[in-house]
Structures are given as C-alpha cells and as structure tokens.
Amino acid sequence: MEIDEFLSTLPKSIVSGEAVSLPDNVVRKILKFAKLKKSDVFYHLGCGEGNAVRIAAAEFGVKKSVGIEIKKKIAVNARKQISRIKNVEIINGDIRKADISDATVVLFWFNDPKIVENMMTRFKRLKVGTRVITIWAPLGNTLPNRIDFPFLVSKTPFKPSKSIREQIKAIYGNPCIDFTAAWLLAERYIDALEVVPSDYRRFVNMLQAMVIWINAWNMGVACEDEVPPPVGTYIGILKTFFSIDLSSMIKAQK
Length: 254
Description:
about 250 residues; Rossmann fold; alpha/beta; two-stranded antiparallel sheet; 2 domains; 7-stranded mixed beta sheet; about 15% strand
C-alpha cells in the first residue's frame, strides 16, 4: 500500500487535523504560550467541542471567547459545554465567512492550502498586534514572532519570509532538515499534542519522521546529498511490517 492509499483510508477530517480534539492541559499550554490575558477577545476557528473556548473564558477570564464550528451537531454539543459561562459564544458557521474582526487572539489549526490562503487575506485585515496561533507551521510565507515547537504565534502585521529555508531556520534553528532533526521534530510534535496512544507512539513517530524528511528532500531543503541509510531502513520497516510504501514519495534530485 502506497502512502496515498493509506491516507485515503483515513477520515479526511483526521488527516487535516480538523477533527482532532486537543486535551485540556495542551490547550492551557497553548494559551499560556500565546500570553492570553483578560483584555483579549479569543477566537478558536474550527472549535470542535469547544474546550479551548471554555478554558479561555473560565480560566483565563478573557473579555470574550468565541468558537466557530461548521458542523451543526458538534456546535450544539459545544454550546452545552459552555452554557453556564459568561462572555462565551459558539457560532455554527464557516470560518471563511464568519465575522472575526474584533479578535485579538486566534487559534487556527488548519492545513488545507485553500483555507489557509483564504484566511490569510482575512487575518491581514485584523487590528495590529493580533496574535494568530498555529500548530506545526507558520502562516503561508511568513515568519512567526514566537516559537515553542510545534506551537507558533504570528502577530499582525505578519513578517514576510524570503524563502522556505529562512522559515525552517527561524523555526528549527537550521536552514535544512536532516534525518535526526526529522525524527526529533516528529517526537516533539507527538509529545506536545498528547493525542497518540502509547501503543502507537513508535509507529506514528516513525511514519511522521519519514514523511517530514521526504518532504524536506523533495523541496530541496534536506541537509543530506543522498538518501541516508536510516531513512532507507525505516522505509523498509514500514513496507515490510506495516505494508506502507513511502518509496514512491521520494523524488529524484535534478
């Protein structure tokens, strides 16, 4: 089974991150990292069951906390979770159309290029100093203002990035990614989000590390000049023991 076939067997919402609910303690860590304060107006775009919206209001005491969720059933359930909390609202709607003009802090965890591109246009119109929290990667071709990988905060007006290498250096401290960095980045991501059961941790770490390195290789930002032995070994393990073939993802270098 090639990686595209494997991903096609998973729900699209899981692959995109839209249906992954972050544990409460991870949400608290993110909001502390973003320096959420009482004067803030907080928005969680794609809020799911609304735990981030609830925590921002109940524990951080923000001026206003709003969640936007496109799925009606989930939005209804989210409203039940925050029914007794002041200054909280759950909107059932499309984040690309909802009014977010009063936001001062936004949690945005989407990786669909079309959605990101659309929202970038809207984010740029927000008031100066608005913080946009992303997970794993910055917004488009920009540089984040604060980094605690995989959590990133970008402030308006956004700082443009000259190249992907500049982005990588800003986030990871090096303008290229080698095998060891790919493995450690995957490990930090898994640890930080706390959503992978311990029984599957090794497998997910291996798979994600390989995908990170292969993507770096294909974009011309891998540190190595040729496929390193550990990458070949792990690709072999995934193919032999899990029937997942990543070899077709590796593009020949010009």
